[in-house]
Specification:
Layout: H1 13-23, E1 40-44, E2 47-50, E3 55-58, H2 61-64, H3 73-86, H4 96-106, E4 119-124, H5 127-142, E5 146-150, H6 159-163, E6 179-182, H7 197-210, E7 215-220, E8 223-224, E9 230-231, H8 236-246, E10 250-254, E11 279-282, E12 293-298, H9 299-302, H10 318-333, H11 336-357, E13 361-367, E14 370-375, H12 386-398, E15 401-402, E16 404-406, E17 412-415, H13 423-438
Parallel strand pairs: 3-15, 5-6, 5-7, 7-10, 10-11
Antiparallel strand pairs: 1-2, 2-3, 4-12, 8-9, 11-12, 13-14, 14-17, 16-17
Helix pairs in contact: 3-10, 4-10, 7-8, 11-13, 12-13
Bound molecules: pyridoxal-5'-phosphate (PLP).
C-alpha cells in the first residue's frame, strides 16, 4: 500500500479565512470571536501557537475540551495506538476499551450512604447527544414529559438540547416543547439576589403553574458555563432535587463544563452540594479533544431504555474511549484536580486585585479553573458592559491570552484553561489582563 503523503495545506491566515468564509455555512459565522481571523497551528499543554508562530496561553481550553493539556502525549499515544489497531468498532460488538472506560467512569460516581448505587454508562458522540439521551431517559423512566431547566443555562445545539437552553441567542425555531424555565440562582445579578431560598420556592411555583404537576426532571449545570460561570449556591442543587423528586422527576447534572476536576474541590461539580444525581451528562474534557460524550445513569433509570433501539454511531469509539481512559489516568497521576484548586485560587486572588483597580470589573467569581470576570457600566445598577468586554477580549489577544466572551449579555470573560495551567502562568495572565484594561483608556 502506498505510504500516506500529507495533503497540501495552505497555512496563511488570509487564505484560510477566505476559504472558510466561502465554504462554511452562515450558521457558523457568529461563533468567530475576534475582529481579525486567528489560525492556530500548534498546541502543547496550556499553550497555543498561531500560523505565524506567536504563542498564546489558552484560557478557553478550546471551549473546555482540553482538560489535561493540548496534545498531551499520553492521550495522543493512547488514541494513536488504538487507531492503528482498530480505529472504529461499532457498539453492536464487544470491545474491551469502551468496556474498561465505562467501568472506570462509573467508579468516579458516589455509591450513596448505603453503598448500593450502581452506575451504568451510555457513550455518545457529543454533549448535546448526551443531553438528548438524558432527556429521553428521564421521560421514559418517569413516564412524565415536562422538564425544568435554568435560565441562562446552555446544553447544546441539537433541537432537544436547545429546548432546555435558556439563552435566546442560542435558541432557533422548531425546538420541541414541554420545558419550563426557572430563574438561575445568580448570586451577583439574579432576580432574587444572593439568597438561595426564593430560587427554590420558585421551582415549586413553576411546577405548580407551568407544568402538568408531574415532571420528568430538572437539568442543572452545577456551575453554568456559557451562562457566565454562575455557581449554584450551596443548598440549591439538593433543594432543587428534593422538589423535583417530590413531583416525580429526576435530577440531571450537566457536567460538560464543570466536571473532571475542573472546580478543584471535587471531581464532579454536583459534589459541592449534598446531592447525588440520577443522571450525569459529560462531554468535552472527557476526551481532551477527541469527540466523546457520555450519559452516566443509575442502573435502574437506564433500564427501561432497553425496550427500544438507540444507537450513536461513534458513541463507544475505541479510539475516543482510549483517549478518555488516558484522560482519567492523567488527571489522577498529575494531580490535576488539586492543581486546579491551587492555581485557581492564585488566579482568583489576582483577578480580585484587578477588580480593585479597574472599575469596569463588577464581579469576580468561580472555583478552581472555572473563573470569570463580569464587566458593568456601573457597579450600582449592574448594567452589563458588552463593549468593554469586547475591547478587553481583543486587547487580551494582543497580550497573548485567549479567553471566552460569555453570559447572556456577552459581558463576562470566562476562563476555563487546561487543568495544567501553572502558578507561573498566573502572573502572565493577570499582567496581560491588567495591560488589556489599561489599554482601554
Ligand atoms: C454545559 C454544556 N452542556 C452541553 C453542551 C453540548 O456539548 P456539545 O457541544 O459537545 O454538543 C455544552 C457545550 O458547550 C455545554 O457547555
Amino acid at each position: 500500500m502506498q505510504a500516506h503523503q500529507p495533503l497540501p495545506v495552505e497555512w496563511s491566515t488570509d487564505a484560510t479565512a477566505n476559504r472558510r468564509d466561502s465554504y462554511f455555512a452562515a450558521s457558523q459565522s457568529k461563533f468567530v470571536p475576534f475582529a481579525e481571523p486567528l489560525v492556530f497551528k500548534k498546541g502543547a499543554m496550556q499553550y497555543l501557537w498561531d500560523a505565524d508562530g506567536r504563542k498564546y496561553t489558552d484560557l478557553l481550553g478550546m471551549n473546555v475540551c482540553i482538560s489535561v493539556g493540548h496534545c498531551h502525549p499520553r492521550v495522543v499515544d493512547a488514541a494513536m495506538q488504538q487507531a492503528q489497531d482498530l480505529t472504529h468498532c461499532t457498539t453492536m460488538f464487544y470491545h474491551p476499551v469502551p468496556a474498561h472506560f465505562a467501568q472506570e467512569l462509573a467508579a468516579t460516581m458516589p455509591k450513596g450512604p448505603k453503598g448500593d448505587i450502581e452506575w451504568v454508562v451510555h457513550f455518545t458522540n457529543s454533549g448535546a447527544e448526551a443531553i438528548d439521551l438524558a432527556m429521553t431517559m428521564a421521560r421514559t423512566y418517569t413516564g412524565n414529559l415536562d422538564l425544568l431547566a435554568l435560565r441562562t443555562g446552555y446544553h447544546g445545539p441539537t433541537a432537544a438540547a436547545q429546548s432546555i437552553t435558556g439563552i435566546a441567542g442560542w435558541r432557533h425555531p422548531g425546538m420541541p416543547g414541554n420545558v419550563a424555565f426557572v430563574p438561575e440562582p445568580n448570586q451577583y445579578r439574579g432576580i432574587f439576589g444572593a439568597t438561595t431560598q426564593p430560587y427554590l420556592d420558585e421551582i415549586d411555583r413553576v411546577i405548580a403553574t407551568a407544568t402538568t404537576g408531574r415532571i420528568a426532571g430538572i437539568v442543572i449545570e452545577p456551575v453554568q458555563g456559557y451562562g457566565g460561570v454562575i455557581e449554584t449556591p450551596k443548598g440549591y442543587m439538593s433543594g432543587a432535587a428534593e422538589r423535583v423528586r417530590a413531583a416525580g422527576g429526576l435530577f440531571i447534572a450537566d457536567e460538560v463544563q464543570s466536571g473532571f476536576g475542573r472546580t478543584g474541590d471535587n471531581m464532579w461539580g454536583f459534589e459541592a452540594d449534598d446531592v447525588i444525581p440520577d443522571i450525569v451528562v459529560m462531554a468535552k474534557g472527557i476526551g481532551n479533544g477527541f469527540p466523546l460524550g457520555a450519559v452516566v445513569a443509575r442502573k435502574q433509570i437506564a433500564a427501561p431504555m432497553a425496550e427500544k433501539f438507540l444507537f450513536h454511531t461513534y458513541g463507544a469509539s475505541p479510539t475516543s474511549c482510549a483517549a478518555g481512559r488516558a484522560v482519567l489516568a492523567v488527571i489522577r497521576d498529575e494531580a490535576l484536580q488539586q492543581n486546579a484548586k491551587t492555581v485557581g485560587n492564585a488566579l482568583l486572588a489576582r483577578l480580585k486585585d484587578l477588580q480593585t483597580r479597574h472599575k469596569a470589573i463588577g464581579d469576580v467569581r468561580g472555583r478552581g479553573l472555572m473563573l470569570a470576570i463580569e464587566m458593568v457600566k456601573d457597579r450600582a445598577s449592574l448594567e452589563p458592559d458588552k463593549e468593554t468586554t469586547a475591547a478587553v477580549f481583543e486587547n487580551c489577544r494582543k497580550a497573548g491570552l485567549i479567553l471566552s466572551k460569555s453570559g447572556p449579555f456577552q459581558s463576562v470573560l470566562r476562563m476555563v484553561p487546561p487543568l495544567c495551567l501553572s502558578l507561573a502562568d498566573v502572573d502572565q495572565v493577570a499582567d496581560g489582563l491588567d495591560q488589556a484594561f489599561c489599554a482601554l483608556s
